Amino acid sequence: MRPGAASARDAARAAASRLEQAGVPEPAASAEILLGELLGVGRADLAAYAPPLTQEQAALYELWVSRRLKREPVQRILGYAYFRNLILELNEQTLIPRPDTESVVGVALERIDRREDPCLVLDVGTGSGAIAISIAQERPECEVHATDVSEGALEAARRNAVSNRTTVRFHRADVVSGLEALRGRVNLLVSNPPYVDERSAASRLAPEVREWDPPVALYSGPDEFAFFRRIFAETPPLLKPGADVVLEVGDGQAGRVLDLGRLAGFVPRGVRPDLAGTPRVVLLEWGGR
């Protein structure tokens, strides 16, 4: 072993201690994930990783830990995120896909599976493409479309679709503007829209979110339900009667979103929890009024 060279286990422990002292959430997880990705091994295998870190590995790990100390998210440091079966490239215009949103995909797949006819899916506000690409990968018989207002986000999503060997048709659109070709054809509408009231963001959001996620994908303006209102107002021309609508919502928003949908002619079909048991997904059906 090179004099002074640290083992993987010792390096991770030292990094976790520094992160903990700085108040970084889940310090051990951050330290181990970063080192595991650097070395190409799983977290569980780090303790048994025998070779000492090379000078280059140690220097890069120190850089990554220093960035995490400034509350930069692990996914931003790495430049990619894991989501269900996918590895997704990120850029400054893409929201970090989170485990909560995996529940949205799960509900969407359930609704697809109950249909006998071929399914056309539209993901509104796709970001990195996490939802759309997951559906295209796991239900390849579906025709999947996705929109985003950000061309930068769409560039990342297109690359992610290719790297994950899926076919998704991407459209630059503010909600559903310019999608006349899909009029009356959509069987399933899914979205993880901006739902954070920007006035309360400073007190509600961790620095990892507040300082690193793109505002356009995060904040709904002064009305936290503004984007939901737009979805209910603007998407009906694209929907087939009986189309499913699956939406991610913020904490405490589910009841109000269902009420807004009902007033717009949608039929509420329930609320589903995320992996932590928090109401996270609302399900509606287009009544076709």
Helix content: 25-40%
CATH topology of the largest domain: Rossmann fold
Q: Which sequence of SSEs, written as H and E, runs from N to C?
A: HHHHEEHEHEHEEEHHHEHEHEE
First and last CA, distance:
73 Å
Largest sheet: 7 strands, mixed
Characteristics:
single chain; 289 residues; alpha/beta; Helicase, Ruva Protein, domain 3; Rossmann fold; 2 domains; seven-stranded mixed sheet; two-stranded antiparallel sheet; 12 helices; 11 strands; 40% helix
Structure notes:
With 289 residues, this protein is α/β, with parallel strands linked by helices. It folds into 2 domains: 8-70, Helicase, Ruva Protein, domain 3 (Orthogonal Bundle), CATH 1.10.8; 81-286, Vaccinia Virus protein VP39 (Rossmann fold), CATH 3.40.50. It contains 12 helices and 11 strands. It has a 7-stranded mixed sheet with strand order 5-4-3-6-9-11-10, with helices on both faces. A two-stranded antiparallel sheet has the order 1-2. Helix 1 (8-21) packs antiparallel against helix 2 (27-39) and helix 2 (27-39) packs antiparallel against helix 3 (55-69). The longest helix has 15 residues, at 55-69. The chain starts with 7 loop residues before the first helix and ends with a strand.
